[in-house]
Amino acid sequence: MSSEDTVGHGVSQPSDAELAEMDRDQLVKLGGQLDGVELVDYPDPWPVKGTRAEKRAERFVALWFTIAGLAGLAFVVGLIWWPWQYRAPGQSGTFLYSLYTPMLGVTLGLTILGLAVGVLLYTKKFVPNELAIQQRSDNQGNGSPEIDKKTIVAHLEDAAVRSTIGRRSLVKRSVGFAGGALGLGLIGLPVASFIKDPWKDSNGPDSLWHTAWQKKFPGEVVYMRRYTGKSDEIVLLRPEDLDAGAMETVFPFRESDRGDAEALSAVFMRSDAPVMLIRLRPEDAQRVVKRKGQEDFNFGEYYAYTKVCSHVGCPTSLYEQQTNRILCPCHQSQFDALHYAKPIFGPATRALAQLPITVNDEGYLVARGDFIEPVGPAFWERKS
Ligand code: FES
């Protein structure tokens, strides 16, 4: 191609040799001409270098990046070492526990805010505020020829050079600190959950395999307790407390918890503890289909199913007496209470776990043992 050819906006096309010879300023100018851009004004914001005002502006920008960095570090440290384990109201450490989520939100938010303010301030204070006029153009989807690529790269380099970031080591260091802390936080978020081994105690009530209904020792009686909203009010249920067609949410109670305010309130907060106790109407009880291996899990017309939905774990709080359906309000899964709570509508694919129950010598409804499968949604290691 000869140097006389034109390539848009009446600009002469330089030869490849001429293009290779051009320095950054010439390429920037050429790129502007090719795009029909006329640089009207390109002032250096700090024409006199090293003034006190310039240093002050630089320190101000660095301050925001430093704030972002410190907040990012605080986020990572808090994410790992803050006391995040649940503390019931009144227990020691409740206050710190209650601040865990706000602390994560504030520190991560401050990190992002600090970075954003730093970048904005830097752009405002140090990047030349050019005034340019561009004619609109369209290359009709013909791709970018070599000349466009080179001039665009030159433009980007020019912007970096004119921003003077290269010679502002304080800003560069603080940006690196803030970016590093944010990166550490982003890595820490998914990694932190692996710090605690979920399989460390596979047989305890805190493992994924068991619930608060697990007996602490052989022969322990775990009663069904009515939810009254008051942790120190213990109301145990007898069969006659439920009318036919009724449903009641119950929690486990063990005599060893009596008088222990902490334990009594903690059980209400356990997500795997609530159970739906359903008393079927006699005519419905005749039509029940029991699950293989769980034929004796009910007590007459009384059936107990976990309230933790097998889809993603919302509370399946609604029982429709006429149809004997249990409904989960989150994604509208429905379970058939007459058919071992198997799903009949919606995204859930597994039946609600059934708690084996009976009535003890004193006439109270009690759990015969823990659930025989994990309650709630699936996880990798789960087999059923
Ligand atoms: S959590 Fe119950 S349907 Fe999704």
From TrEMBL:
Pfam families: QcrA_N, Rieske
Domain Rieske: 300-366
A single GO molecular function term of this UniProt record: 2 iron, 2 sulfur cluster binding
Gene3D superfamilies: Rieske [2Fe-2S] iron-sulphur domain
Subcellular location: Cell membrane
Main subcellular location: membrane
Keyword terms, alphabetized: 2Fe-2S, Cell membrane, Disulfide bond, Electron transport, Iron, Iron-sulfur, Membrane, Metal-binding, Oxidoreductase, Respiratory chain, Transmembrane, Transmembrane helix, Transport
InterPro entries: QcrA_N, Rieske_2Fe-2S, Rieske_2Fe-2S_sf, Rieske_Fe-S_prot
Membrane-traversing stretches: 61-82, 102-122, 175-195
GO CC entries: plasma membrane
PROSITE patterns, alphabetized: RIESKE
UniProt key word Oxidoreductase: yes
Membrane topology label: Multi-pass membrane protein
PANTHER family, per database record: CYTOCHROME B-C1 COMPLEX SUBUNIT RIESKE, MITOCHONDRIAL
Record function comment: Iron-sulfur subunit of the cytochrome bc1 complex, an essential component of the respiratory electron transport chain required for ATP synthesis. The bc1 complex catalyzes the oxidation of menaquinol and the reduction of cytochrome c in the respiratory chain. The bc1 complex operates through a Q-cycle mechanism that couples electron transfer to generation of the proton gradient that drives ATP synthesis.
Family indicated by similarity: Belongs to the Rieske iron-sulfur protein family.
Protein's name according to its UniProt entry: Cytochrome bc1 complex Rieske iron-sulfur subunit
Taxonomic classification: Bacteria, Bacillati, Actinomycetota, Actinomycetes, Pseudonocardiales
